[in-house]
Amino acid sequence: MGKKLTAWSLAALILAAILSACGSSTALSASTLSKVSARATTDPAVTVNVPWVDKPATIPTTTVVAPPLSATCKPADLKAGAASFGLATAQEGWRVPITNTGNQPCSLPDYLSTITAVGPDGSRVTLSNGPMIQPAPPITIPQGGKVAFGIISRAWCDTVGLVQPSEHYSFVEVGIPAGTLDLPNLNLKLCSNKIFSGFQEPISVPAPLPGTVASLAAHLDIPKSVKAGSRLDYEVVLENKSNETVNLNPCPVYQEVITVFVGMNGKSSSRTLELNCTTIKVIKPYQKITYEMMITVPSELGAAKFGWHIAPGGPYVGAALTIGQ
Questions:
Q1: Residue 258 pairs with which residues in a beta bridge?
Q2: N or C: which end of the chain has fewer CB within 10 A?
Q3: Pair 236, 293: CB distance under 8 Å
């Protein structure tokens, strides 16, 4: 990463420009220099660099009260829609909308234990299934409401992306407490029979209020290729795009994660720390603050995914990485 101007070096450039324009080598008075420096450090258009601090933290938690549990959904009351497909870094995913066509609300587990499909040899097989997220309370679907059933798997079958999935699975059936839910429109192409799946509630995220940490935008400056086992230095820029000052008290907690894909599995290296709130206590309207960051790269080689976010509910930014020797 290239060297960035600090507020003080920018002040020095401003001072040099003033001296040049005046055609004089006379030094500015202490009060004038102080005013120039103050403008350089408080101008919202100036990006301030904040050094990294090693201050481990835990993500703040909130208590969520689960709603009263409805009756278990029956397969006859559920209708599966057309499946959609998408790709992300080293992963592929399918999403099937499920509508409650019954005459009352009903509930489904957030993850499943049994999924079968007709495999490459024409016989029905049980897929090796893991939850997409940690177990949570069952999901309640209002009458006429929708949830989604999601499946994710590997987007390639080796560590470098040369071998594509080729095993076809169709006529997927999902085991739910009250029976079997058919997903006739879902066709999978996998590396093997290993998947991760679960029911997901529709995500409706209200726009964050101006002046809150959640309203900040995050930008990432990170190398595309890194050395296994090395220290990765990178930068995160937090930008306040509103006309309200964002107070960093309590000091926000961020999490950084590198996940490298090894075979069919992913191995992650993560840390949870506090921002440097000693140097910067507020982010003013339309101001950008650059935070210096560092994390240890896993020792495994291959394609990887990097993620950084303020938790809970803050801005997120990510990038694809290649880990080499």
A1: 269, 306
A2: C
A3: yes
The contacts of residue 24 (CB under 8 Å, 6+ apart) are none
- In sequence order, what are the residues at sequence separation of 6 or more whose Cβ sits closer than 8 angstroms to the Cβ of residue 64? none
The Cα–Cα gap between 112 and 276 comes to 41
Helix residue spans in the chain (DSSP H): 7-22, 30-42
* Confidence tier at 168 by pLDDT (50, 70, 90): very high
SS3 of 247, please? Answer: strand
Give the contacts of 79 (CB within 8 A, at least 6 positions apart). Answer: 98, 99, 101
Please state which of the four CATH numbers 1.25.40.10, 1.20.1560.10, 2.60.40.10, 3.90.170.10 is assigned to the domain occupying 47-61+208-324. 2.60.40.10
**Beta bridge partner(s), residue 97:** 148
pLDDT for position 304: 85
Give the pair of three-digit tokens for residue 109.
């587990």
CATH of domain 75-200: 2.60.40
Residue 33 has pLDDT above 80, yes or no: no
- Phi then psi for residue 40, to 5 deg, are -65, -35
Say what the pTM is: 0.56
pLDDT confidence of residue 13: 32
Rounded to whole angstroms, the Cα distance separating 91 from 1 reads 29
pLDDT in tens, 62-75: 555 555 668 889 99
* pLDDT score at 80: 94
